[in-house]
């Protein structure tokens, strides 16, 4: 079974969680001008399943909180520096859709906050979106669109794909001698097949992200 899910490691605000798919048929009032349907109700996480490393009661509700304008805040109610450098990552949480979707386009917008938490010293501002997960866990196996900014080196990793045990074909340019630094380039545009490996695959993206699926079922 495959899942569509979002992870949270650093403070972040998420806007416009929406999906457009063949098997979604809400009322016209629930759609935006492009036909996308909001998967977040703007109030709570009732229509998502949540998994946190720490099973403490009430933790999920504290990690994910609603804003005043339909946005979702992550770690808003935690003190700055919470668990930083302690190696304790119980607040690592993930949420995923309860419904299945196929032939869909999924998009969201995000904005980083000012606070830093738990693994900041290693991964700085770090979150992401997993899709086609085949091992539900923290962390799962599947593919992740990274949402990450390294403010120490001023490197934006947002949009890069992180492979966690999946098998897929990847094409990239050869402008870099190091294969790990080769940016995605489609086969039609001259991209060359890269080695199959785990870890990060560079892609140039922005703060609005869209995932397209042309046939597989996902959550």
From TrEMBL:
InterPro entries assigned to the protein according to its UniProt record, in alphabetical order: AL/BT2_dom
Pfam family, any one: 3keto-disac_hyd
Record-annotated 3-keto-alpha-glucoside-1,2-lyase/3-keto-2-hydroxy-glucal hydratase domain positions: 35-164
PROSITE patterns: PROKAR_LIPOPROTEIN
Region of interest called Disordered, as start-end residue ranges on this chain: 191-219
Signal peptide bounds: none
Basic and acidic residues composition-biased segments: 191-203
Gene3D superfamilies xrefs: Exo-inulinase, domain 1
Transmembrane spans: none
Protein name: 3-keto-alpha-glucoside-1,2-lyase/3-keto-2-hydroxy-glucal hydratase domain-containing protein
Taxonomic classification: Bacteria, Pseudomonadati, Bacteroidota, Flavobacteriia, Flavobacteriales
